Please model this.
Amino acid sequence: MKNASVSIVILAAGAGSRMKSQTPKVLHKICGKEMLFYSIDEALAISDDIHIVLFHHAEMIKERIMAHYPKQPLQFHIQDHQHYPGTGGALMRGNRQSNELFCEEQAKTFFSCRYEEILVLNGDMPLVRSHTLHKLCEIQAKIVMSVLHLSNPDGYGRVLIESGKVCKIVEQKDATNEELKICDVNAGVYKFHKSILEAYLPKLNNNNQQKEFYLTDVIALAYLDGVEVLTLEVEEEEFMGVNSKFELSQAQEVMLHRLRYQAMKEGVIMQLPHTIYIESGVRFSGECIIEQGVQILGQCEIIESHIKAHSVIESSIIDHSDVGPLAHIRPKSHLIHTHIGNFVETKSANLDGVKAGHLSYLGDCEIKKGSNIGAGVITCNYDGKSKHRTFIGENVFVGSDTQLVAPLCIESNVLIGAGSTITKNAAQGDLILSRVSQKNVPLGFYKFFPSQSDKES
Ligand code: UD1
Ligand code: CA
Model:
């Protein structure tokens, strides 16, 4: 769907003060992925000329983007926020990260993109999808803008229409009481012909409540010169802006709905789907069953597996296995043909054909086919300074309540008696018992509880 002839500018230089957070707004996550990365992904699907405007926390945001997209052709611009704050200021040439000094009129010109058509996206709209952007790009006009029709337009810029034509956008803070009643609002995505930005950015001023250079004022200026503004009516579910933590939670609900819908479309069975939380890096294949209250986080692959109620899976591969209820599969676990029961926790565990039915901690370990892990078994992987690994071969029976003190190697066909503390390696065929031998003291009970013996005599 690449539309090679459009440049995309993503605006991400705002302060995000309504988020009330130390974290920059565009780095807040939705289903485990940074809000801004959703916009970048959709932009990359349609263009090879992408510009990101930053200012607040610019270095931090840029570093995170570069780490996530090491090979993508993304260009960064730092907004001259001090002199030209606002969404219009964000597109001005004075933003260039260079030593060039511009006079005021030069600084206010457009910073230049490779193509004639420029798609501008607010960086706080993580739900927008590339096919809708593509649709907007296909409309031929010097200015095309996205419009939302809302029952509650609170917070958005209102779209003023004169004789059926868009003539102006009024920000909420500048609107009259009459204008506030308008339910058509600016959704925050626009396509401009380069000549429009070149002509009207220099004419912007900041005579408004927020003392900002509004990109939206380009529309009123162009209208006065007879430029036609076409609109694309879009859905709130895709174009909502995220300005507060409440809106962040609403956007996440929408994203979750999409992720669950996609998974079910691919053949996953979900019980009470609204109770299931999955993140954007989760992949399913084959017929999987996900029961209620399950959380699947980070980069996960779930293949032909059954995840039972209230289990948590983090950055792991679960292949032809069943997990839970109430199990915790922590990062870098790889389970194949394995049964994990309730209250079992794994971490960095390679389990192939293993049964661990109850109450165990299996961390930093590799366990081979046919091995059975009894209830209460613990790999003691940490000595207070470093982590150590445990290796268990095939057909090993680890009795209940055994502690395996790593580093440790148990070869195949070994039987470990319940309640053992294993500190030494075991050779193939060994039976290991490390518990203290049992002592029975006849009538010891009555010595301890003399009153009971009176009652019974
Ligand atoms: C903006 C629109 C409003 C529209 C709404 C849709 C303007 C003036 N208003 O309002 O009409 O209804 O989006 O969601 O454009 N940004 C910068 N530099 C700045 C200021 C903002 O890059 O100096 C970025 C922000 O990081 C953000 C985006 O621009 O990603 C929008 O800014 P925001 O402050 O959220 O604008 P709204 O008040 O939501
Ligand atoms: Ca916004």
User: Anything to note?
Assistant: The first helix runs from residue 35 to 46. Residues 245-432 form a domain with the UDP N-Acetylglucosamine Acyltransferase; domain 1 fold (CATH 2.160.10.10).
